[in-house]
């Protein structure tokens, strides 16, 4: 059954609803993916533009959130492929990554730092699984990768994190 909430008969998106519903989620995911707040904001804007321009192609076979996250990931990948981005590396403070009003515990800071150091293919599955609360099947759909591959990447990412965090007292 196609997803039709917030659309008109001409299949135009309700951008106000989409921005309200997915804006924060997209910004966090793009920020964690790109490691730069301004670049993440640009990526979110580009994502919304692509959603608006291509909403007529959304057939409802997947959930709207999955479709929009897929667009955002592709935008982020395009940004990372850009020659300028490869030469310039800017990293915002960890407080901006977590976007919390109170300072995060030291354990959270360390964990986020270690996640950000992982290869992109491991980082993206961890971000989608733990930070976006997505199921392996949803991640596979977003990344257009078999579920078994996603499971293996998730397992390897956990193993790498466990190895990097050995000796850390988590109470």
Question: Any key phrases for this structure?
Answer:
globular, 171 residues, 9 helices, Arc Repressor Mutant, subunit A, disordered N terminus, mainly alpha, single chain, Rna Polymerase Sigma Factor, Chain: A
Q: Would you write up a description of this structure?
A:
By secondary structure, the chain is an all-alpha fold. 68% of the residues lie in helices and 0% in strands. It is built from 9 helices and no strands. Helix 1 crosses helix 2, helix 2 packs across helix 3 and helix 8 (136-143) packs across helix 9 (147-164). The longest helix is centred in the N-terminal third of the chain and has 20 residues, at 15-34. The protein is globular. It starts with 14 loop residues before the first helix and ends in a 7-residue tail after the last helix.
């Amino acid at each position: 059954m196609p997803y039709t909430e917030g659309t008109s008969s001409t299949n135009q998106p309700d951008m106000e609803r989409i921005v309200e519903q997915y804006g924060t989620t997209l910004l966090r995911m793009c920020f964690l993916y790109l490691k730069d707040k301004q670049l993440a904001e640009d990526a979110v804007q580009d994502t919304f533009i692509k959603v608006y321009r291509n909403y007529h192609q959304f057939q409802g076979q997947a959930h709207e959130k999955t479709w929009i996250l897929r667009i955002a990931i592709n935008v982020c990948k395009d940004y990372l492929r850009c020659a300028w981005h490869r030469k310039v590396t800017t990293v915002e403070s960890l407080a901006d990554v977590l976007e919390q009003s109170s300072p995060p515990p030291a354990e959270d800071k360390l964990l986020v730092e270690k996640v950000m150091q992982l290869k992109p293919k491991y980082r993206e599955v961890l971000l989608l699984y733990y930070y976006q609360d997505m199921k392996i099947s949803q991640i596979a759909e977003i990344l257009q990768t078999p579920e078994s591959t996603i499971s293996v990447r998730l397992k390897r990412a956990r193993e790498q994190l466990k190895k990097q965090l050995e000796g850390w007292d988590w109470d």
